[in-house]
Amino acid sequence: PAHPIILAIESSCDDTGAAVLAGGELLSNVVATQKVHEQYGGVVPELASRAHQQHLLPVVTAALREAGITKDDLDAVAVTQGPGLLGSLLVGGMFAKTLALALDKPLLAVNHMRAHILAHFLRDPKPTFPFLCLTVSGGHTQLVRVHSALQMEILGQTIDDAAGEAFDKTAKLLGLPYPGGPHLDRLARQGDPTRFAFPVGAMPGYDFSFSGLKTAVLYFLKKETAKNPEFIAENLADLCAGIQHTIVATLLKQLRRAAADTGLTQVALAGGVAANSGLRTALQQEAAVQGWEVFIPEFAFCTDNAAMVAMTAHFQFEAGDVATQLVSPDPRLKL
Ligand code: KG4
Ligand code: ZN
């Protein structure tokens, strides 16, 4: 395989990932998703750390095997430094540091939010710099002007809940299983998005706010179920469609404003919420009107994965941006 050969590790939340990238080409990408959190309706940090501990070695071993290499072929070891859960980041961080030390190879510390964006460079078609990226996941909502692989600028972000959280929390109010985003998406396809209206959380500028939506849905459901206990069951598809329509409209409004103000016409989507069918359709429609070129990576590269960490590490390796053994996880690492 071509060089540099980089092993990347991702453990910032509840997915344990390892990937091998050789000369910018992905050789393997393995993810172990933690099921333990479902019964709690959200990620339990302590349980996530323990599960990473159990999954990491098998996941790394599988990634090396699938790539057809051994650890001695590696030119560098990369790991997500943050943002994320401290305990989870520590498990991956200590593993990567130890491996880099044992192999006497460079260590690369990667920003998870940059990695979501640079996932676009794993496969064709790739955007060209500069472009706009909307990163929407369970933990983050950011609108970013991507100047280059190493220089990015946050234009706007959520001031409270992330877009994925807005899906999951409102889905929970409707009695859907966790994480509710995909369930809400599926039900919304049969619903009428115009029957129920909820507040759009677009702030002045490019910021987002989704906590008002959650509160509005909560009070609306309380009021209606007091009159009719079957209200949710009888109107489930329309409720889902209304909520999804509101979240998508909020995202699109800020995206439209940012594109107009920056003059950028390449629009990229990243994060797990990129799977949302309503968002994809609305974005394609908007793109046709505005003349945008839209980029959406395949789903495996939208949700948390180590391939995107390896891609980011590749750019850093080329630029000589190498970490030392003194690097430590940063749960609040800025873009
Ligand atoms: O990127 P990701 O796997 O994890 C984080 O880093 O947060 O994103 C997970 C989020 C969850 O909130 C999930 O409900 C949401 O993405 N999600 C969706 C859909 N698929 C995943 N939300 C709406 N519609 C979907 N189809
Ligand atoms: Zn993520």
Automatic annotation (TrEMBL):
NCBIfam families according to UniProt: gcp_kae1, T6A_TsaD_YgjD
Domain Gcp-like: 25-310
Enzyme class at the top of the EC tree: transferase
Name the UniProt record assigns to this protein: tRNA N6-adenosine threonylcarbamoyltransferase
Subcellular location: Cytoplasm
Cofactor field: Fe(2+)
The UniProt record lists the keyword Protein biosynthesis: no
PANTHER family per record: TRNA N6-ADENOSINE THREONYLCARBAMOYLTRANSFERASE, TRNA N6-ADENOSINE THREONYLCARBAMOYLTRANSFERASE, MITOCHONDRIAL
InterPro entries according to UniProt: ATPase_NBD, Gcp-like_dom, KAE1/TsaD, Peptidase_M22_CS, TsaD
Organism: Hymenobacter aranciens
EC number: 2.3.1.234
Primary location class: cytoplasm
Pfam families, alphabetized: TsaD (PF00814)
Role of this protein: Required for the formation of a threonylcarbamoyl group on adenosine at position 37 (t(6)A37) in tRNAs that read codons beginning with adenine. Is involved in the transfer of the threonylcarbamoyl moiety of threonylcarbamoyl-AMP (TC-AMP) to the N6 group of A37, together with TsaE and TsaB. TsaD likely plays a direct catalytic role in this reaction.
Family: Belongs to the KAE1 / TsaD family.
Keyword annotations of the record: Acyltransferase, Cytoplasm, Iron, Metal-binding, Transferase, tRNA processing
CDD domains membership: ASKHA_NBD_TsaD_bac
Record-level Gene Ontology MF annotations: tRNA N(6)-L-threonylcarbamoyladenine synthase activity
Segments crossing the lipid bilayer: none
